[in-house]
Structure formats: C-alpha cells, structure tokens
Amino acid sequence: MTSEAIKLFVEDARAVPIEVGAKRLGLKFPGKRFEHAQPCPNCGGTDTFAFNTKKNVWNCRAGGVGGHDSIGMAAHCEDLDLHRREKFLAACSIVLDRSIPEEAEREAGEEREARRKRLDERRQQNEAESEARATSQAEYREKERNKARGIYRPLAPLRTSSLPFGRFYLGRRCAGFPDDTWLRVGSEVTYWHGQHERGAPIALYSGPAMVAPFISPDLQLIGCHITWIDLDRAPKFRPLLFGLTKEGAAAGLVPWEFGDRPPSAEDIAAGLYEQLGTKKMRGSKKGGLIPIAGHPEARRWVGGEGVENGVAFGEWEGWRDDSFYFAAGDLGNLSGPAEASSRFAHPTLKKPDAKGVLRPVMIAGSKPKVDQAPDDAMWVGDQVDELVLLADGDSERVMTAAAMARARARHARPGRLIPIVWPQAGSDFSKMAAEADTGT
Q1: Closest listed residue to residue 397, CA positions, set 345, 362, 359, 346
Q2: How far is Cα 82 from Cα 98, in angstroms, rounded to an integer?
Q3: What is the sign of the dihedral through the CA atoms of 346, 347, 352 and 357?
Q4: What distance in Å separates the CA atoms of residue 138 and residue 434, rounded to the nearest whole number?
Q5: Is the peptide bond before 217 cis (omega within 30 degrees of 0)?
Q6: Quick check: 73 and 51 in contact, CB under 8 A?
Q7: From the CB of residue 315, how many other CB atoms can be counted at a distance below 10 Å?
Q8: Is it true that domain 3-106 has CATH number 3.90.580?
Q9: CA Rg, the chain, in Å?
Q10: Phi/psi class of residue 42: alpha, beta or left (left: φ > 0; alpha: ψ in -120 to 50)?
Q11: pLDDT tens sequence across 249-292
Q12: CA–CA separation, 172 and 237 (whole Å)
C-alpha cells in the first residue's frame, strides 16, 4: 500500500464533520439545536457524553476526554486506542464509512501522481477549513462571553440583594451563604430551550436564579453559571422543566410549556419528552473557574465540582480569611483530560459491546494528558501552596476517584499540598450540611 493512499485516507477522515461522524456512529441527536447530550457509548452514565454540531466538538465528562474531530470521537465511542496504527485506521474507516485500503494495493505511475495531487489538495483544504473553524469559534466564543456578561453584570450580589431567594436557596442546601459579592441573583432569568421553525430560540421559562461568574487567570469575566431556583420543590429547590425531543416532534406532539402538567412517565421513557437540567453555563468555562468567596490572591484554595459543595464546606470551616473558595464547572473542568494510556477497566461495571458481549467499562485514568493546553482545565494561582480539592461522594466512585487523582497530578507543584477531602459515601457536602442543619 502506498504511503500516499494511507495519508489521503487519513486526511479524508479528518475532514469528516462531527455531525456526519455522529450519524455514522449511530449517536442520538436529542437536542433541539446544536448540543446533543446522551449516555456515553463507552463509559455509560446518563448525559455524560455530548457533541456540538456548530462548534464541531465532542466531550465525555466521565472519560475526561474530548476533541474537535470525528476520528477521536469514533475511537472513544468504539474503545479504540489511537496510539495503535490499526486502531487509528479503524476509527478513520468508521467515520469515512469505507474500508481501509488493502495492503497489497499497487498503483501505476499516473494513478500515484493523481493521488498525490489529491492528497495535497485535501491537506490544503483541511488547513483552510481548520483555520476558518478556529476563527468562527473565536467569534462565537466572544459573542457568548458578551451574552454571559449581559446576564451577570446587571444583577445584585446575593448577600445584599432585596431578593432573598438566593440566600434561602443556599441556606436550605448548604446551611448558609458567603459574605461576599461573587454570587448574584436575578428575579427573571430566562431559560432558553429549542427553537421556532425559523430558527429563533424559545424562552421556555423565566424565573428566579442564582448566577455565578467564570473568571480567567486575569480575573476577567468569561462566562456565567446559572442555577434556577424554586423554593417549593425540595430537596434540590429547583424548577421542573421538560423539553420535546426530535422523536416527540416526529410523533406530532407539541412542545411542553411551563405551567403544563408534566409529561407522562411513559412518554419520557419512550424518549418523546426529556426532563431538562436546571443549571446552565453561558460564555466560556474553558480554563476558567467559579469564585465563591475570598480572593484568588490567597495562598490557600478550597473547591471542587459544584457551587453548593464549595459553599457547604466554606460554612463548615467558617470561611477562613486566608482562603479562596471556588467551584469548577464540572469534573472535566477540574481535572482536565487524561492520558489515553492511563485508561483502565472498571472493577465491576460492564456494558454490552456491538455483539452483546458484556465488557468492562473503561475509565479515564489518573495521569493527565501530556500535551494538553493550559486552559484544558481550570487555572490555579502560582502562589497557591495549599489546594484543598473537594470530591463528590454521590457520583460514581471509581471514575470520580480517578478524576480527583488526575486533578491533583495536574495541579501539583513543588511544595504545594493538595489534599483530597471526601464526604460521606453516597452523599456530598451540601447534602451533609442540609441534613446537619435540619437534624435529619
């Protein structure tokens, strides 16, 4: 097989958009617009895997991996090691939906020259498209950041606002709230979901919300994290929202509107409607973090996944003056991607492969990816000499433990202490704080 044939085969695969690759992998398109969350075909879970057809990206929170091309997505979904040539070519074959060129293939001189010419053209086309995507993504990212600033900046600080629901929410979830101005509240924050026939977004709901900023290392606002609040819905105190899926629309059902009765359990089980998350991020979380209390100049940092856990732990230790309390947007934001070679089989969890044979679920390991970018995870100030990482005890234990170990390895520096603090098994710090506050 000529090297040009294989190189052209690979370049063709690199040109396959995420949307096309997802269809050839048999992934679902449950979202109404560009973002499509679902269980990871490799790691399992409920909504741990997602791909975005506008940004041309994919991400697996459970596996701690993601990327910008269909080859990597196919390799993750099909559990193929990209470091092995035959597995890499198998991933290319999947996204191209054609066979790998035969090893015994021979070409005449004219055919070889024609292939070389097409290879050069494909490379140039891929480079041009990559540059165009980068420009488009940068423009889209800045547009989203401006939207996040527009949401966050007009709002009042949670601790001093005349709107008490933010303090009530954290009081009930975390047994208190910080005496700081990072967290803010709004009475009518819009929840956008789906789009009209002409493509305009739909305002599904508008109501009380707590809004936290994402900040970059230069303390610039790059995004926001929104938590909608309903104090009548214990124990999470968040509203109940539903969206119509593509399958539901195809069946002739109408979109759910706030105030309607919840869809039946049968319709949800059939995938006609879906319960929507009541937390959203706008702008960028990439490389950022959520400040809760204190200042990033502190030498001691305390935080983990979730604003509520950070608040609960801060309340428990009395909001130390020498500490900066923060939250990561999610576990991947905290730990960053894993080195592929560190993946390991879960000791108990199994999933059926394409032939129905049960095989161990593969878990992203504790070793950080070698060539990752600085903003592939949250930033930590160089002056920090103690970084207390808060684990989540009600998430899958093995995957969480590997991610927390990876976060410690990623953020390690000479002389820096990085203890990992775990809540009670099957719980988290906010749940523990609420139970202690109510005496349950």
Answers
A1: 346
A2: 18
A3: positive
A4: 41
A5: no
A6: yes
A7: 22
A8: yes
A9: 24
A10: alpha
A11: 889 998 898 889 999 999 999 989 989 999 999 999 989 999 99
A12: 8
With tokens 């006609």, the residue in question is 272
Contact 273, 242 (CB under 8 A): yes
Give pTM, 2 decimals.
Answer: 0.80
Backbone angles phi, psi at 216, to 5 degrees: -90, 175
Residue located via tokens 């165009």:
132
The residue written with tokens 């089989």 in the block is 345
Q: Which of 11, 7, 4 is nearest to 108 (CA)?
A: 4
Q: Are 31 and 37 in contact (CB under 8 A)?
A: yes
Residue type, 179: D
What's the CA gap between 228 and 279, in Å, rounded? 7
Run of H or E including 14: helix 3-14
Q: How far is it, in rounded angstroms, from Cα 245 to Cα 272?
A: 5
Structure tokens at 84: 């092995």
What DSSP assignment string belongs to 172-195? HHHS---SSSS-EEEEEEEEEEEE
From the list 213, 162, 159, 210, the residue with the least C-alpha distance to 186 is: 210
Query: Which stretches of 68-202 are DSSP H helices?
Result: 70-77, 85-96, 109-152, 165-174
- Six-digit token string for 174: 């975390």
| DSSP one-letter code for 213 | E
Name residue, tokens 């097989």: 1
* Type of residue at 277: G
Report CA torsion sign: 221, 227, 228, 231: negative
Q: Which two tokens stand for residue 272?
A: 């006609």
Q: Tell the residue number behind the tokens 């070679």, with chain if given.
A: 341
Domain with CATH 3.90.580 in the chain: 3-106
- CB of 228 closer than 8 Å to CB of 189: yes
What confidence tens digit (pLDDT) does each residue in 295-341 have?
999 999 999 999 999 999 999 999 999 999 999 998 889 999 888 78
143 phi and psi, to 5 degrees?
-65, -45
Can you name the residues that pair with 192 across neighbouring β-strands?
A: 203
Cα–Cα distances (Å) from 403 to 208, 304, 388, 391, 420, in that order, read: 33, 11, 15, 9, 11
